[in-house]
Amino acid sequence: MKGLRALLDRHTLYEIAQWLEESQRWDLAPHEIGVLMEAKHSYYPDKWEESYTPSVLIDYETDLTVYDQRLHPAREGGVQR
């Protein structure tokens, strides 16, 4: 009951019903619905202008499998220490 009251404090009943109709997520608790409704309105911040990252590394994504192999060589068939 407390979660439903908090949800209704932040959103109207119409907004909640509209979100439920769109998402078809009838199995969620009120606090979960509130979090998902808030996430729908959030956005990623704009990139900052910066001068210290080399242009080669801008938008570069690290291959985490290589990192994991170096960090945990025993898992990849390396020597156990």
Layout of helices and strands:
Blueprint: H1 2-10, H2 13-23, H3 30-41, H4 64-71
Helix pairs in contact: 1-3
Give the ordered list of helices and strands. Answer: HHHH
How far apart the termini lie comes to 54 Å
Overall number of strands: 0
**Class by helix and strand content?**
mainly alpha
| Share in β-strands | under 5%
Kindly report the average pLDDT value. 80
- Principal-axis shape equals elongated
Sketch the major β-sheet.
none
The gyration radius over C-alpha positions equals 23 Å
Q: Which consecutive residue ranges, at least 5 long each, have pLDDT under 50? A: none
Query: What share of the residues lie within helices?
Result: 40-55%
Total of DSSP H or I helical runs spanning 4+ residues: 4
How would you characterize this protein structure?
There is one protein chain. The radius of gyration is 23 Å and the shape is elongated. It contains 4 helices and no strands. 49% of the residues lie in helices and 0% in strands. It has a domain at 4-42. It has helices at residues 2-10, 13-23, 30-41, 64-71. With 81 residues, it is mostly helical.
Q: What are the key terms here?
A:
single chain; 81 residues; mainly alpha; 4 helices
Concise summary:
This protein is mostly helical and about 80 residues long.
